[in-house]
Amino acid sequence: MALLEIQNVTRRFGDFTAVDNVSIGIEAGEFFTLLGPSGCGKTTLLRMIAGFDLPDGGRILLKGEDLVDRPPERRPMRMVFQSYALFPHMTVEGNVAFPLQMAKTPASEISAKVEAALEDVRLTGFDKRYPHELSGGQRQRVAIGRALVTHPSVLLLDEPLAALDAKLREEMQIELINLQKEVGITFVYVTHDQTEALALSHRIAVMNKGRIEQLDVPSKIYGFPKTRFVADFIGHINLLSGSVSERQGGVITLAVEGLGPVRVTSASPISVGGAGTIALRPEKIRIQSSAPTDSPDNHYRGTVGDLLYMGDVTVYKVSIPGGTRIEALLANSQSGRAKFFEIGDAVEVSWPVDAGHLIEE
Question: From CA 350, how far away is CA 326, in angstroms rounded?
Answer without folding.
Answer: 10
